[in-house]
TrEMBL record:
NCBIfam families: M6dom_TIGR03296. One of its GO terms (molecular function) is peptidase activity. InterPro entries: Peptidase_M6-like_domain (IPR008757). Residues 13-60 are annotated as: Disordered. GO terms for biological process: proteolysis. It comes from Streptomyces himastatinicus ATCC 53653. Residues 13-34 have a biased composition (Low complexity). Coiled coil: none annotated. This is Putative secreted protein.
Length: 416
């Protein structure tokens, strides 16, 4: 699990189950794309990094061609282990392929390695004072300035949308003991190079080796996680680890078996078309067909807004694409709160079998939430802010799409 700059955890209100009550049947309609504005939850004020839509302009763009500068660095007291090319190949072309699959081809991630050797820093690794959770000032500011100065004349920083600093893996402790990898995103006060601020920079240390022999296959995913920050995605893990989201998003857990991003994140990044999102903003019952998230076609997200900053997200998760550890396929239901900061729990997976032990046998996959998805015949009921919501999975079509009924009502005494 990785950090982005300085995280300030915050408490998150969670929806509770409504009291049982008899209600008149609600009108049933087939979902239409309609206006998505009620479902585009606004970013919370004063947050370091928000789940809100749209993402602010200081982050790197996440659609079209994105040029990523990769610099492999070492230090006088910690010389490069292996070659710079070998370090680069720990992450590419795997990272580019991961983003191509996750974005359905909407992100063309192009890594560049203009310097083919270790870029030696002028000062010792120890002198920068780098530890887990280190703030940008003063150590990282000094390091970024030294990187820009050392690469000057060899790199035109104006050509790139983001920067990856792939540190020699023997600098700092093993990632299994302490994760140092970090991203400083939308950092407009960063040192400049070639007239542009180095505002979106990811640092990757060590190797994510859990001893299972899967390093070559899965160890690269620390970079999609870190680059998720430069695209504006917050951390989904908290001080308690992956308890909120488990293995359902690489911004929660990036060790172990392959995983993808939540549908809400794909919408936030611009990877879903207008007809791939259903917004259930009005009272009544709507019927939806959710196509498995890894497929490029079909509806990927149903969102039920509860307030200007909260709501329920529905998506179909099955094995395929970037997802390798789905042991119970079905409809994943999450609670999104754009008032909660990165690392504080802005998203919570609502478990179909709370208190259970899960179904996974994979290492480094949160077990309790591995069977969180709702299968045919299963129902979630909850509510908040005067809105009651019932989500019922009615079945699965021959083409693999899940049929879902969403009922939205005002609770007793609520307006609207």
């Amino acid at each position: 699990m990785l950090t982005v700059a300085v995280v300030a955890p915050a408490a998150m209100p969670r929806p509770g189950k409504p009291a049982a009550a008899k209600r008149a049947p609600a009108p049933v309609t087939t979902a239409r794309a309609g206006s998505l504005e009620p479902c585009s939850l606004a970013p919370g004020p004063g947050l370091q990094m928000s789940e809100g839509i749209p993402t602010s302009r200081g982050y790197s763009r996440s659609t079209g061609t994105v040029n990523a500068l990769n610099l492999m660095i070492d230090f006088p007291d910690v010389r490069g282990k292996g070659t710079a090319r070998e370090r680069f190949e720990e992450f590419f072309p795997q990272t580019s392929r991961w983003f191509a699959r996750s974005s359905y081809g909407r992100l063309d991630y192009r890594p560049a390695m203009p310097i083919d050797h270790w870029l030696r820093m002028p000062h010792s690794f120890r002198s920068y004072g780098i530890k887990r959770g280190s703030p940008f000032e003063p150590g990282y500011r000094k390091l970024v300035a030294d990187i820009a100065k050392t690469a000057d004349g060899k790199v035109d920083f104006r050509r790139y949308d983001l920067v990856n600093i792939l540190v020699t893996p023997n600098a700092g402790p093993p990632a299994a003991h302490a994760v140092l990898s970090v991203t400083y995103a939308d950092n407009q006060r960063a040192p400049t190079a070639d007239g542009v601020p180095l505002a979106n920079v990811s640092f990757v240390y060590s190797r994510q080796d859990d001893g299972s022999g899967s390093l070559r296959k899965t160890g690269f995913r620390v970079l999609p996680h870190e680059n998720g920050h430069v695209f504006g995605l917050p951390d989904l893990y908290t001080r308690g680890g992956g308890d909120n989201v488990g293995h359902w998003d690489v911004m929660s857990e990036d060790w172990g078996a392959g995983n993808d991003l939540l549908a809400w994140h794909k919408w936030k990044l611009g990877w879903l078309g207008i007809r791939q999102v259903d917004c259930a903003a009005h009272p009544g019952t709507t019927v939806h067909a959710l196509s498995p998230l890894h497929r490029p076609e079909g509806t990927k997200l149903v969102f039920v807004p509860v307030s200007d900053s909260t709501g329920y997200a529905l998506e179909a998760r099955t094995g395929g694409g970037n997802d390798e550890a789905v042991c119970k396929p079905g409809v994943l239901v999450t609670w999104v709160d754009t008032r909660v900061d990165s690392g504080g729990g802005p998203v919570t997976v609502l478990d179909s079998s709370p208190g259970g032990h899960g179904c996974t046998q994979e290492r480094n996959v949160h077990p309790g939430l591995s069977d969180a998805a709702f299968g045919p015949g299963e129902t979630y009921e909850g509510g908040a802010d005067g809105v009651r919501v019932r989500i019922h999975v009615t079945g699965r079509d021959a083409d693999g799409a899940y049929r879902v009924e969403v009922t939205r009502r005002a609770s007793a005494g609520a307006r609207g």
